Amino acid sequence: MKNKWKIRTIISLLLVFMVSFLMIGCEIEGDISDRKNTKENNLTVSFIDVGQADSILIQCGNETMLIDAGNNDDGKIVENHLKKMNVSKIDYLVGTHPHEDHIGPLDYVIDNFKIGTVYMPKKTATTKTFKDVVNSLNKKGLKPIAPKVGDTFNIGSAKATIIAPAEDYKDANESSIVIKIQYEDTSFLFAGDAETLSENDMLKSGTDLSADVLKLAHHGSRTSSSDKFLDKVNPKYAIISCEKNNDYGHPHIETINKMKNRNIIVHRTDEEGTIIATSDGKNISFDKNNGTYNEGAKVNLEQNDEKDIEADSISENKNENDMKVYFTEKGKSYHLDKDCSSLKNSKNILMGTLKEAKDKGKSDPCDRCAL
Ligand SMILES: [Zn+2]
Ligand SMILES: [Zn+2]
Ligand SMILES: [Zn+2]
After folding, report:
1. Protein residues with C-beta less than 5 angstroms from the ion ligand 3
2. Where is the Metallo-beta-lactamase domain (predicted)?
């Protein structure tokens, strides 16, 4: 009798154990499939259509990062998109560099959302836009951090790594914060307005630059996205954030041809509006059809009224003054080509904007390379 009772007890204990084990098994399985199915556990990247500017929202798990916020007038657009995506707190706010088309309404965003960590480069500006941002940061007691290359942090289960700037470059675009995000097997590289100088330093750093999606630097300008850089990033997709018929002709034909020749699929806000990319950790999908390989439209002056022509020539002048030129300490002219034959005998070739060159009295365009 005693033995029979013992065996029964053992059998029933075993049964209880097996049943509960099966139940735990089910629960684990349920957990995994839930995780695969719920949107919150994907990585979602919104390239918000803010015209000739950048604003990118990254969401993973319950955490968010906002990279840039468009031009000064775009505060509401960014706010509306964040609300649509159920964002009330921005865990990481990044102002890539102090140009208006990137930090324009950062003050508005700081005033209207809960903000965690703020990343901005060392570079400052004397503009009202920049001062507004500083004021809003001060009001909330927020201190921006200038991140270092190699710094990492997590957005949900995605890993963010700072890729640039390697130093405080003279040029604001070059000083852009560049961030790579790895989510399981998929990756994104957000290149701000970084140009060739910073690209070369990124290449030198030996960091793994490869990414499935590259937010093309500087709105698809020819001054960024060098072949060497594209070789290393080797993206499947390129995102261009720019406005239709913008003053700069972005994306430039040189850049768009590189995309075409490399069979990189292009998505662009000037054609598609706001673009949302979703990664499930293995694959990346887009909510819009692919963009075209058309270069940015050249503005046809004859079709514009006088006021537009005036505005165009002002912005063209502004662009021209920002143009990179080469000159020497003693020379009177400026050069567009660093390898210009008239510079052959000069040991110390200086570089600066056209405005800087003119301010130094180098106002003659070189007749070999600058006419
Ligand atoms: Zn810029
Ligand atoms: Zn820009
Ligand atoms: Zn020259």
Report:
1. 335, 340, 342, 366, 368-369
2. 52-244
Can you tell me the mean pLDDT for 178-188?
98
DSSP-assigned beta bridge partners for residue 182: 159, 187
Is the per-residue pLDDT at 324 higher than 90? no
Q: Does 347 or 170 have the greater pLDDT score?
A: 170
- Residue 358 has φ and ψ, to the nearest 5°, of -65, -40
Tell me what the mean pLDDT of segment 55-66 comes to: 97
pLDDT tier at 312 (50, 70, 90 boundaries)? very low
- Cα(179) to centroid(ligand 2), Å: 16
Ramachandran category for residue 219: left, alpha or beta (phi over 0 → left; psi -120 to 50 → alpha) = left
What is the set of domains in the chain, with CATH numbers?
Answer: 39-286 (3.60.15.10), 323-371 (no CATH)
Phi, psi of 253 (to 5 degrees): -60, -35
Structure tokens at 307: 């006021």
Q: How confident is the model at residue 2 (pLDDT cuts 50, 70, 90)?
A: low
368 alpha carbon, closest ligand = 3
